[in-house]
Every structure is written in structure tokens, then in C-alpha cells.
Amino acid sequence: MENKEKFAFRKVKMSEGVEVEFIKLLTSVETKNDEDVIKAFKVQLSSGVLTCHAEMLSRTPSQIIFQTSQFSKPYNFYKNWELWVFSNILGVWTLNRFRI
């Protein structure tokens, strides 16, 4: 019997503009409490037909990790499960996104 991985992480390619946009969002709210950071993140990812669900898995001064999914209202299901890893190295934030 073949042993399959439960989760397969695939790195999501982003344009530089998208990466910069989310890093700017994070830097604008990084001093706020966890709930305010999550709320800002959810607003950015939501649209008229998609509702973003986000959970902060970890927060340290040098790293913030979110898990997100989007709920499609017309089709009544969740999609786009992703892990967002923001890392602060020497005062510069970077972003890596993974599809789960």
C-alpha cells in the first residue's frame, strides 16, 4: 500500500506587486493586536463573492504565520487553502505563500 502525504505544500508564485502589497499591509498593522492584524488581512483577501477566513498560527517579532481559506458564496464551499509566512530578517519583511 502506497503511503501518501496528508498535506502537500506547494509554493505559490506571486508577482512582486502582490508581495509588496501584503508586506505593506502587514507593516501598517504589525504593532496592533492579533485580532486587528487578522481583521485587516481578511478584509484584503475578501471580495463580493468570496469571504476570507484567517487564523494566526504563530506570531513572534521575526515571524508571523497565517492559515487562510476563502468561502465561495455562490457555490457554498471553501477553496484556496493557503499558509502565509511573513519573516523579518534584519528589519526587512519577506513573504512566502504555500498552497495546502
Description of the structure:
It is a single chain. Strand 2 (50-60) and strand 3 (63-72) form a beta hairpin. The protein has one domain. 10% of the residues are buried. Helix 1 (16-29) runs antiparallel to helix 2. It contains 2 helices and 5 strands. The protein has a 5-stranded antiparallel sheet. 26% of the residues lie in helices and 44% in strands.
- Shape summary: globular
Secondary structure tally: strands: 5
Low-pLDDT runs: none
By helix and strand content, what is the structural category? Answer: alpha+beta
Count of helix runs: 2
| Rg | 15 Å
N-to-C SSE series?
EHHEEEE
Q: How many independent structural domains?
A: 1
Beta fraction: 35-45%
Whole-number average pLDDT? 90
Major sheet: arrangement of strands:
1-5-4-3-2
Write a concise keyword list for the protein shown above.
alpha+beta; 26% helix; single chain; 100 residues
Summed up, what is this model?
The protein is α+β, with helices and mostly antiparallel strands. The protein has two helices and five strands.
